C-alpha cells in the first residue's frame, strides 16, 4: 500500500511529510468529521516526526499509523463512547462481500457521518481505514493493536450499523437526470441552473487533493456551493456523468483513469450532499463506469 522510505535525514522527513500531508489530512478528516480537529492531529503528527525516527523504514505507513492512533485517542477523549450491545449477534460474515466492503468507498454523506458517531472508536477506525481507504486488515490490526480477525469483526459490526444510510435514496433514472443537470449548469456557469438542483442546505465534503490550498473540506449552503462550483468551472468542462458503485455520479478523467469523482446523495429531486473523492486510495475503491 505504501512505498518504502527511509527516515535518514530531516530534509527527507520534510519531503515525505509534505507529500503525504493531503492523504494524512484526508484520513483524519474522515475519521473525526471535523476539519479543525483533523488539522490539529496532522500538525501533532508532524511534531512526532521531528523526534528520532531513524529506525523507521516505511515513513508513509508510520505517519498514517501515528495519525490514526492520534484520532483514536481524540475520539475516546472527546466523545461519549458508544457501548456494544451485549446481545448483538456475531456477524455472519466478518469479512463482508464486495458490495459490503465498498459500502463507504464513495459515500460519506451527512446521514452516514451522523451514524459514524454511533460506532465505537475502534469500529470507526476499522471501517474507515479498510472500506474507505483500502487499508489491509493486517495493517488495521496493527493500528488498533489487535488481531486481523478482530479488525475484520469490528468493520463488519460497523457496516451493520451504517448499512441503512447507504441505500440509494432516489430512483436511478431521476437521480441521473439531476446529476446531469448539475454538471451542465456547472459547465455553463449557470447560477439559476445550479440553484434549481441544489437543496438550500446542501453540504459538500472533499478530499484535500481535490481543492486549492486553504479551501474548506466541508461547506454548507447552496450559495457557497454555487460560488465554489463557478470557481472550479475548468474542472467541470473535463467532467462527465458516470456510474459510481451503481449510482449516478461525475468523474474527471485523466490518462490513467479517474482523477476525481463526485458522489451524490439526492432526495426529492435535489442534491442534499456530495463528496468529492480525490485521494488515490479512495479513488481506487470506486467502481466507475460510463
UniProtKB/TrEMBL annotation:
GO biological process: DNA-templated transcription initiation
Keyword DNA damage on entry: no
Domain RNA polymerase sigma factor 70 region 4 type: 113-161
SUPFAM superfamilies referenced in this protein's UniProt entry, alphabetically: NTF2-like (SSF54427), Sigma2 domain of RNA polymerase sigma factors (SSF88946), Sigma3 and sigma4 domains of RNA polymerase sigma factors (SSF88659)
Listed GO MF terms: DNA binding; sigma factor activity
Pfam families xref list: Sigma70_r2 (PF04542), Sigma70_r4_2 (PF08281)
Family membership noted in the UniProt record: Belongs to the sigma-70 factor family. ECF subfamily.
Domain RNA polymerase sigma-70 region: 17-79
Keyword annotations of the record: Sigma factor, Transcription, Transcription regulation
Top-level division of the source organism's lineage: Bacteria
SUBUNIT field: Interacts transiently with the RNA polymerase catalytic core formed by RpoA, RpoB, RpoC and RpoZ (2 alpha, 1 beta, 1 beta' and 1 omega subunit) to form the RNA polymerase holoenzyme that can initiate transcription.
Organism: Saccharopolyspora shandongensis
Protein name stated in the entry: RNA polymerase sigma-70 factor, ECF subfamily
